[in-house]
Write a structure and sequence with these properties.
With 163 residues, the chain is α/β, with parallel strands linked by helices. It has helices at 17-33, 47-58, 78-86, 104-114, 130-140, and strands at residues 6-11, 38-41, 61-66, 90-94, 119-123, 145-149, 154-158. It has one domain (6-102, 116-122, 145-158): Rossmann fold (3-Layer(aba) Sandwich).
């Protein structure tokens, strides 16, 4: 198995919380056990926040990539968002040091993928999304990608063997 120290985690919001929590607890726990130290997330509702919380709870570091200054988090999980940002093992990075603009979230995705990482871990069922954008960019950069499609209930691996 190749060394995996840092991963980019991305995923959809509308996948059932229990399912995402179960799969990410297993996957991140296994990666941590094998030496993974850091999870890079975009801090969106759903998969990003669930994964960030699991990573922190098992002892990993989190790099929270905020899309722009003044990012106003309006989802029901606002308390969790701020709790993750305040955690001592979280580093906050701004993808754009200015206000929102059309394309802020795609820029955040590019920023995350520009940080050093070994694989992309994606929980997605719809390729026409921000998560799909991350996966397409990772493919262009020949990064190994671990994709969980909840409809298929299996992980698929591209560009590498991470068994």
């Amino acid at each position: 198995m190749k060394d995996i120290k840092r991963i980019v985690l991305t995923g959809h919001r509308k996948i059932p919380t229990e399912y995402v929590t179960d799969k990410l607890t297993q996957s991140l726990g296994r990666l941590y056990y094998k030496g993974c130290e850091t999870v890079i997330v975009g801090m969106a509702a759903g998969t990003d926040l669930i994964g960030a919380r699991i990573a922190l709870d098992i002892g990993m570091e989190v790099i929270a990539c905020i899309p722009h200054f003044g990012h106003d988090y309006k989802h029901a999980s606002q308390k969790e968002y701020w709790s993750i940002l305040a955690h001592p093992k979280t580093t906050v990075r701004w993808a754009h040091e200015g206000p929102w603009y059309d394309g802020s979230f795609f820029n955040r995705n590019e920023f995350m993928l520009g940080l050093p990482h070994d694989i992309v871990l994606a929980v997605m069922s719809n390729p026409k999304s921000g998560t799909g954008h991350c996966v397409r960019r990772a493919r262009k950069n020949d990064k190994p990608i671990y994709i969980l499609n909840p409809e298929e209930k299996i992980w698929s691996i591209e560009n590498g063997d991470y068994s």
